[in-house]
Amino acid sequence: MNLNLVDQLTLLALDDEKGNFITDSFSFAYGLAGAIILELSLQERIVVEGKKLKVKSTETCGDALLDHFLDMISGSKKERSIQTWVETIGEKYSSIKEGTVEKLIKEGILRREEKKILWIFSVDKFPAENTKPENMLRKRLNDILLNDCEVDMNEIMLISLIDMCELNNEVYGKERAKEFRKKIKGIIEKGQLSSSIGKAVKEIHDALMAVMVILMASAVFTTTTTS
Q1: How far apart are the C-alpha atoms of 112 and 94, rounded to whole Å?
Q2: CA angle 50, 32, 91 (to 5 degrees)
Q3: What is the pTM of this model?
Q4: Per-10-residue mean pLDDT for the chain, 227 residues long?
């Protein structure tokens, strides 16, 4: 079962038993946008030239969600910056989340349950149906911290997204996340990118993380000044 960055981040952001998302919607929205852009770069569909995001190939990714946003980027009348695309894709948060959850339900990894609030309002929950894929993912991520395992490109990007979405405590456990904080940062900052697309992906990753910091800081400032 081949799960991309968007699938992996969504699984890690869900409480397995309760079936609800445990990260705030703002950081997760931009986290999903980042996961889409990084996954497209990992699959060599997009590159950065200057400050613009450019399409390298329009070949299908074999994933409806990724193909949708690849078509959106390639169909744009002009080339746009990473920040613009992060904001544009982040605005589609609800549909991205719903589409990814539906995919994971069809794969037999999640199930949908309807819960009543005050016996009136219905809320959908998505507890785990098959915990093996997520358990294997969590084990691998923890092994990287504990045993100094070599990390591949996908894992470096995922560790970075987990950190950005403030999911370290959930993924590694509170004590371990605190103990290995510097190591997590080191993997993100100094990951050895050895593949042929390493430079291009790192370029997109660095630009993306810088954009995330700006967007999240702006949102905090706006909230503070309007409250």
Answers
A1: 16
A2: 80
A3: 0.87
A4: 92 89 83 92 88 92 96 94 88 94 96 75 85 95 90 88 90 92 84 53 70 70 58
